[in-house]
UniProtKB/TrEMBL annotation:
EC number(s) recorded for this UniProt protein: 3.7.1.3
Pfam families: KYNU_C
Nucleotidyltransferase keyword on record: no
Function: Catalyzes the cleavage of L-kynurenine (L-Kyn) and L-3-hydroxykynurenine (L-3OHKyn) into anthranilic acid (AA) and 3-hydroxyanthranilic acid (3-OHAA), respectively.
Name recorded for this polypeptide: Kynureninase
Family statement drawn from the similarity comment of this UniProt entry: Belongs to the kynureninase family.
Organism: Litorihabitans aurantiacus
SUPFAM superfamilies referenced in this protein's UniProt entry, alphabetically: PLP-dependent transferases
Cofactor: pyridoxal 5'-phosphate
Lineage, top ranks: Bacteria, Bacillati, Actinomycetota, Actinomycetes, Micrococcales
Keyword Ribosomal protein: no
Amino acid sequence: MQAPAYAAPVTSPTPSPTGPDDARRAAPSTSRALDGADALEPLRDLFVGSSSGVVYLDGNSLGRPLRATATSLAAFVTEQWGGRLIRGWDEGWSGLPLTLGDDLGRVALGAAPGQTWVGDSTTVTLYKLLRAAVAAQRGEEGDGDRDEIVIDTDNFPTDRYVVEGVARECGMTVRWLPVSTSAGVDVAGLAEVLSERTAVVVLSQVAYRSGWLADVAAITAAVHDVGGLVLWDLCHSVGSVPIELDAHGVDLAVGCTYKYLNGGPGSPAFGYVARRHQERLAQPIQGWMGHADPFAMGPRYAPASGPRRYLSGTPPILGMLAMRDMVALLDEVGIAAVRAKSLALTEHVIALTDERLAPLGVTLASPRDGDRRGGHVTLTHPRMREVVTALWQRDVLPDYRDPHGLRIGLSPLSTSFAEAEAGVDAVAEVLRDLAG
């Protein structure tokens, strides 16, 4: 499927509707025109709830389920789990973390086979990769000169907490990179904290608050120039923006699958270790599924080759099924088409914000430059916490992030331009109501 060409957003002079119900029923003509010209718009019918009255602007936290997933889950329970029982492990289940990892790598990560796997949570996978990278950088005795882990002050809490824990565990120092909550990490800022003491740098490709899209290629190269390794968190980018892990020389990556990959609440994370590092990075949580011969039940641990060595316990098969459906859809559509619509949606929201929300005191806390913006837009106002609470009561669902930020997550395959506009108009109405 070719990436559709989207017209530049042009806001409508039509006055805002009188209430959120009106906003859902009749978005202004510009949004209707954009939806009418959108080659991906028919795909919205593939998602549960897309035709409901709910204005859903939180797809960057939890994606809508695909209708096909209800069918595939039911079939799995009755035919594979219920019908094949334990034989299912020999008939595909045990290999699913790797086969699905390879599919995800090909479709969304720019990763060749044999480097990606699915399993565990983001937090556990992040710990595994960071702990392994630190050990490799510091040597067998753990007393090498590279004793700093670099991370930015606005990275997602899990990343910061895991970094602090690993640093404490290994007797290392956390080198904090200050960044603005309305921007993100760039090469110039990062260069100020890199040194020969840098062991590992942990960064997010898309900042969870601002939506800042980092320059993965340039930043990875800068870290390599000082001899460090970089671990990229892809939670807020995978399935929304193009990723080229192999081409950009990325060392390690981790990401969740319940946002733009629509895997469902708590669906397992994925990990990536570049092939060149796999023999060097030892699995820190040694479990039976990472053994070279799991069913030998041997007396000592011997790591498997390839990404299987980074598995620990029994794979969460049920948790992979919904994500598998979404990866198949992304494969059909192509990430270029997804990114084109994502940019068009965020441009549309920014234009509407300038016209309808800025006069009410709302400011944009996301990059205006599309090359530096991921798939969500954050708007700030001193009363945004109250705004989000009121919107949820009206079936308009963005989310809130301090400081004073309303985050509009635009999942390209399930969100329409009309839905985005209805959400902006609902924000305007609530702000006017609060102002009395």
